[in-house]
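Predict the 3D structure for this chain.
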Amino acid sequence: MKKILTLLVAALFCLTGAAKTAEEVIGELKKATGAMVINFNKEILASQLGKTGDTDLEPIFKNIDNGCVLVLQDADKAKVETFNSKTDELDGSVYEPLTTAFDGDHRVKVLGRAEGDSLKEIVVIVADGSDCVMVCFNGDIPKDKIGQLVNNKTINFN
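Done. Predicted structure below.
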């Protein structure tokens, strides 16, 4: 019995040791592709929302403490493939899939890391032919607000 328990503990350690976080993937993508990474905090987010004049988004973003945006623009095929393979490593790790949508070449994937009834981290991955974006939000976001966070006001293919 001790051998089985030891084997199970070792297997779990290997699985959790291999799980990547969004922060790790962003670092790897920045290094591999030269993507631009912009970090933001609550104050920067509030000031940018104030500039839009859109008060509908304020209640949604009040639960976000900080985050970052990775932008890979006009990338060649190899960089887009690197982006897709690195972001695919987040599936089944510490993140649970919340939604995935496809529109032609456009792909939107939303992942979340939950604790209780809230999400501590949301990762939005958007990719099309040559442009890729990964946005990470950290905070205490109620699960019922996710639909408001990822909608036509925050993600637009036009």
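The longest strand covers residues 132-142.
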